[in-house]
Amino acid sequence: MAPSIKDVAVRAGVSIGTVSNVLNRPDKVADATRDQVLAAIAELGFVRNSSAAQLRAGTSRSLGLIVLDMANPFFHDVAKGVEDVATELGYAVVLCNSDEQATREDRYLQVLEEQRVRGVLITPVEVSSERLDALRRRGTPTVLVDRHDPRVNCCSVAVDDVAGGELAGSHLTKKGHERIAFFTGPLTIRQCADRLEGLRETVAAADLDPDKAIEVIELPALKARISYEAARSLFERATDVTAAFCANDLLALGLLRAAVSTGRRVPDDIAIMGYDDIEFAVDAAVPLSSIRQPTLQIGRNAAQLLLEECDHPDTHAHQQVMFKPELVVREST
């Protein structure tokens, strides 16, 4: 059971009113007393309840959703799936954008816990984080979205990204491509690493040396403007790359813009394969081949798992849902 303000008062040897002052009017409390109360808060793991009035009226009707990058249409669609289920069941969704920053993610987790949301859905910057682990230990139901790690004791909904990399690699090698650039965000992101692993496996299966056949272009973020500049640099030097597989469609769209702006024909000079199959993929200057993920279904399933755990915390078994991706072939390959 989560520690209460009374528990803090007892641990610190002060009144409940003094604890309240430390939380709300710290300037009115002597330094030594304030430090004593703060130490008790830290020892007990107390989290202030900013939604006490709501909770006195009944169970919270809000869910927290933290995504990596709201500029990425993939997360728009996932959020819509979450919101559809939440709305059907009378919940509101508090949407937070970590922008791939661990410090922002930690702050949002703190705020959501203070607001006593019913549960949290999160695409974490890193699967293992101290604050995320603490949130689960204190009893807030949590579901990982677009992440899978069997070592983590919670539900997850993800896509088999190794299989997605295999689909892309198989398609490109069957088209005769023997030198493939892999445009990716940081390989510390599990999805990026898994997609590269799948690509390497199919390249090896085509009797090519992955270390020679694949040129990995690791970028600081999964954004189109960054891949545009990287692709321009690739095209400016002598290269025998004839195809590119991008870790998401935004990178592919940046690459496509660079190719068109430098007079390269797609797919004759360079074939381009994306990942996610966002809405803009089909409307690109050259319609983009991509690996489709069931984004709405990911969001819906994640919300359903979270609410099932909220309603049955003692009996609900943690489930790891893994969807299979789908190859969508268009003009760019």
From TrEMBL:
Keywords carried by this UniProt record: DNA-binding, Transcription, Transcription regulation
Transmembrane segments: none
SUPFAM superfamilies reported in the protein's UniProt record: lambda repressor-like DNA-binding domains (SSF47413), Periplasmic binding protein-like I (SSF53822)
Pfam families in alphabetical order: LacI, Peripla_BP_3
Residue ranges constituting the HTH lacI-type domain according to the UniProt record: 3-57
Organism taxonomic ancestry: Bacteria, Bacillati, Actinomycetota, Actinomycetes, Pseudonocardiales
Protein name: Transcriptional regulator
Keyword hit for Cytoplasm: no
